[in-house]
Task: structure prediction
Amino acid sequence: MRNVVTIASKELRSYFVSPIAYVVLTGFLLLGGWFFFNLLARFNFLLQIYGAMQNPEAMARLNLNEFVIAPLLHNLSVVLVILVPVITMRSFAEEKRGGTYELLLTSPLSVTEIVLGKFFGAFLFLLVMIGLTGIYPLLLVVFGNPEVGVMMSGYLGLLLLATAFVSVGLLTSALTENQIIAAVSCLVTLLLLYVISWPADTANAVLGAVLKYISLTEHFGELVKGIIDTKDLVYFASVVVLALFLTQRSVESVRWR
Amino acid sequence: MIEVRQLSKRYGDLTAVRDVTFTAEKGQILGFLGPNGAGKTTTMRIITGYMPASSGTVKVAGFDIFEQSHEVRKRIGYLPENPPLYNDMTVWSYLDFAGRIKGVAKSDLREAIDRVVERCGLGEVRQRLCGHLSKGYRQRVGLAQALINDPAVLVLDEPTIGLDPRQIIGIRGLIRELAGDRTVILSTHILTEVQQLCQKVVIINRGRIVVEGLLQDLTQGQSLEEVFLRYISADVDAGEVDGAPAEA
Result:
């Protein structure tokens, strides 16, 4: 456990001593702020129009959760698809290229400790990243009255989604010593998991259900709606465990190749 | 202290190391000599547990590298050919990290870092980034990393390569000092280095041990160059015939 903490804190530090952390954080917050501003402006616009039209029914349907927070979270999730590969691409690839892999693998560490350390390092970074966007819903709570429970559920969803992304990123980084290849293959995998449910509605029932189950977005969408279902939690947990297990195997294979 | 027995390593069709057998006693500095590509690095990577052999065994301090890899890794300090430094870390934080992952107790860590910093002459650069260090300092930080957990066995892969003459002398002095009751395996293709530092010599050529013996027994009136060339070229002449390697 001590070793996991040591590696995780080294990882976290290495994000912040290189410009990557700042570029990624700035980009993420900049885009997040832009989304938030525009969603809020649109919300305000609709509010005024329906108000002028004296349409109480439409007014009742307008709420901050559905019109601001849900689309915000969905947009942020798309940005994460692009940014997480950038965060995780170095984790193993750079160690291999820089020769520090030899230090790690000849130290009295288990491969599981190395993988978990890197995982928690990246996870904590994502936690900071997503935590900082918490300012937007916080503003809504201060100046409006969104449903806090639904909001929290949505944020939990975003965090789980990011965690799953991170584990996939670690896996692709462990498979190569080239950071670009790691990032691109992670990006493609994540995008694929994102859009895999597109043919679900036209495919036959069984295939459709399977595709929907595999898709990250479907499970994320449920949480954004405020539905915390065990099946979605189990789904995210299984993606993380499977990806980390494969990462562990891949690192271990250096020893037994 | 180190017992290597019939070690072989194959990468697909290529046999990098074939039936390598040698031993190093406690307190000995063993010079591991051979031309480039002879299999030195492969052998050292197997001894340090970085990768497994295809066949054969290695015992370090009585522990088997395959079955008790963890125990072995606790007792070995390894300096790979390229010092494994994190360029974005300062020397101090790097050594702190190395100490932690090598299981140095928290209470001893500061003392251990101070000890290796002093030993390797890193006082001036302790707050510098590893990425900004000269080649000589990088090598010394790599050595400091290998020493941080006070290992019984040191494995050094070409520690003086690419250094200027003054730095070479410095590193050699350091290795001599460090030896003490440690066992050191030093790979190199610089023969004078072996003459100056080592008690024992193992020469490897094209994946095979061609000679193993004490330096004084091997040289006996000839220079190490002559001995080296004789064994290397004899091996080439013998071609692929599996003659018993000459024992000294």
Summary: Chain A has a mean pLDDT of 92. The first helix of chain A runs from residue 2 to 17.
